[in-house]
């Protein structure tokens, strides 16, 4: 029996609903396989906890978390806590604390899902996001607060080490895919220091991967290419901020934000990696039981792959595709199914296989 210890952090809003659904599906998968089991340990690290106790992560929390095989995360964000506090004190505290520098975001139109984009069937991208520095390095400050001459700075940080490791990761990923194609996203025309380093290191690393075909695109231009020529891209590497924006666009083009998964990887495996749907806590639908749980299911597939459970990962992905193809869909995809309907349907399908 192979057993994996999973730390579960549902967080806020629909994070709680979709992670609950994801646990059910993983349990159904384990039960069916017979030689696989998950030990889930729940952590109540959320905005509610912050409002009650003044902290998201208790003292010693990260240390405790570091002993798990993986982290299954919902979303964080509350109307009662400023977003920069919730994001930095919970999600980024884990990503940066565990050096999860590679954020991987696949985008594909699943069977039965309607995209508003003509030709969307050809979307098959993986966006690789630098997840430890760049625009979100937390480097900046505010002076003369409250006075007319107040100043705020937000200084991006690009280190050669940080840039090299993410490019190398992206090249290796591109190399493992049939098309072996990598697009560098940049803004080195307007930003002439960090972004130029970003480009230079990319072309240096490229010499080690002669079988990967490469191209370079400015971030503004790449948005139009994603919409007008989706078939021309495979793996895309971009900075923390650029990839954050591009991956929401990629999710919307492939049907809904409710479908897209992501992995925050610590490729060295010194620390556990964290897996989460890319959406947030969705105030507008939280508590209604209508959130699309497919993003958290696909996230579970990525977690299984990372845990070395490739057969279980393939089985779950196939079940997700049968589910979307069946037309049983939540409101964001134009259907009327609830989170529970979708979860029950996929669990039943897993049992039948
Ligand atoms: P959001 O992703 O929560 O919602 C955007 C829109 O997409 C909403 O209309 C929502 O109903 C819809 N949507 C998202 N996921 C869905 C799902 N699974 N099924 C159906 N519809 C879905 O983004 P928003 O509104 O910008 O942020 C809300 C809060 O979440 C904020 O506090 C924000 O900071 C936080 N957030 C947290 C993230 C994280 O924990 N990784 C990521 C993005 C936002
Ligand atoms: Mg985002």
UniProtKB/TrEMBL annotation:
Q: Does the keyword section mention Nucleotide-binding?
A: no
The record's InterPro entries line, in alphabetical order, gives: ICDH/IPMDH, IsoCit/isopropylmalate_DH_CS, IsoPropMal-DH-like_dom, TTC_DH
Q: Tell me the keywords, alphabetical order.
A: Manganese, Metal-binding, NAD, Oxidoreductase
Which positions fall inside the Isopropylmalate dehydrogenase-like domain? 5-346
Q: What is its EC number?
A: 1.1.1.83
- Catalytic activity of the protein: (R)-malate + NAD(+) = pyruvate + CO2 + NADH
Cofactor section? Mg(2+); Mn(2+)
Q: Which GO terms describe its molecular function?
A: tartrate dehydrogenase activity
Q: What class of enzyme is it?
A: oxidoreductase
Q: Which family does it belong to?
A: Belongs to the isocitrate and isopropylmalate dehydrogenases family.
**Protein name per its UniProtKB record:** D-malate dehydrogenase (decarboxylating)
The protein's organism comes out as Billgrantia ethanolica
């Amino acid at each position: 029996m192979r057993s994996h210890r999973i730390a579960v952090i549902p967080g806020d809003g629909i994070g709680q609903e979709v992670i609950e659904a994801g646990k059910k599906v993983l349990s159904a998968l384990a039960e069916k396989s017979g030689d696989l089991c998950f030990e889930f340990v729940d952590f109540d690290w959320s905005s509610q906890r912050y409002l009650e106790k003044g902290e998201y992560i208790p003292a010693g929390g990260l240390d405790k978390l570091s002993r798990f095989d993986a982290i299954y995360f919902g979303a964080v964000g509350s109307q009662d806590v400023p977003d920069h506090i919730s994001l930095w004190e919970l999600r980024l505290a884990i990503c940066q604390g565990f050096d999860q520098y590679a954020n991987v975001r696949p985008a594909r139109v699943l069977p039965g899902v309607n995209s508003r984009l003509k030709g969307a069937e050809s979307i098959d991208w993986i966006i690789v996001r630098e997840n430890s520095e760049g625009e979100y390095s937390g480097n900046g400050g505010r002076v003369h607060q409250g006075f007319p001459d107040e100043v705020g700075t937000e200084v991006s940080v690009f280190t050669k080490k940080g840039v090299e490791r993410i490019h190398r990761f992206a090249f290796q990923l591109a190399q493992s895919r049939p098309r072996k194609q990598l697009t560098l996203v940049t803004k080195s025309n307007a930003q002439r220091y960090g972004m130029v380093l970003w480009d230079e290191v990319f072309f240096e690393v490229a010499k080690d991967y002669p079988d990967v075909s490469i191209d370079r695109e400015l971030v503004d231009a790449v948005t139009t290419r994603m919409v007008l020529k989706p078939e021309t891209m495979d793996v895309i590497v971009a900075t923390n901020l650029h990839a954050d924006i591009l991956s929401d666009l990629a999710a919307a083009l492939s049907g809904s934000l409710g479908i897209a998964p992501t992995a925050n990887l610590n490729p060295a495996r010194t620390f556990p990696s964290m897996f989460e749907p890319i959406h947030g806590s969705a105030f507008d639908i939280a508590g209604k039981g209508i959130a699309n749980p497919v993003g958290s299911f696909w996230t579970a597939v990525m977690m299984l792959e990372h845990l070395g459970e490739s057969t279980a990962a393939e089985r779950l992905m196939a079940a997700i595709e049968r589910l979307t193809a069946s037309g049983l869909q939540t409101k964001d995809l134009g259907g009327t199914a609830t989170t529970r309907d979708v979860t029950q349907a996929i669990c039943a399908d897993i049992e039948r296989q």
